[in-house]
Structure to design on (171 residues):
């Protein structure tokens, strides 16, 4: 068995490197095209003098977005900072150029700094997105069950449902 010449090894490594570079560029371009509409959905908040916060969401894209919700990370009943989410529906549909606003008490909006509050929506391509209200960071969101939860449901539904319920109560 021969290991080959130096030229064979260099050409093989060059080919593998160019394939890796090509797939990396392709993946980056795919992410950019997925984000083009979502980056045009803008959120901001304004602290008003009447001790409320006005949260604004505007759809600047060319196509509508749906299921626009505000997920408020609030504190628990003992005043400790915990991630107890309140889902507030902003709009079922935001057409291009449309905006919605929501007034929230100042103390409730700024109560929990550890867990970020975010706006969640689905773009016209069917992708779900979350935008952090304070930092403006945009991320693709997973909604629904993970592959592990689906597998557990197939394997033993009763145990999986009990496990999901107990994990939900912690939060």
């Amino acid at each position: 068995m021969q290991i080959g010449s130096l030229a064979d090894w260099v050409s093989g490594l060059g080919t593998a490197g160019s394939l890796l570079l090509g797939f990396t560029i392709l993946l980056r371009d795919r992410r950019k095209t997925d984000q083009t509409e979502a980056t045009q959905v803008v959120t901001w908040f304004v602290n008003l003098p009447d001790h409320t916060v006005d949260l604004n969401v505007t759809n600047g894209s060319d196509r509508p977005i749906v299921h626009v919700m505000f997920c408020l990370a609030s504190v628990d009943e003992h005043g400790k900072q915990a991630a107890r989410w309140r889902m507030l529906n902003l709009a079922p549909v935001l057409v291009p150029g449309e905006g919605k606003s929501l007034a929230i008490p100042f103390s409730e909006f700024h109560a929990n700094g550890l867990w970020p509050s975010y706006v969640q929506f689905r773009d016209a391509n069917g992708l779900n997105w979350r935008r952090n209200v304070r930092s403006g960071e945009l991320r693709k969101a997973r909604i629904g069950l993970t592959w592990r939860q689906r597998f557990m449901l197939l394997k033993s539904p009763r145990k999986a449902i009990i496990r999901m319920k107990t994990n939900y109560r912690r939060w």
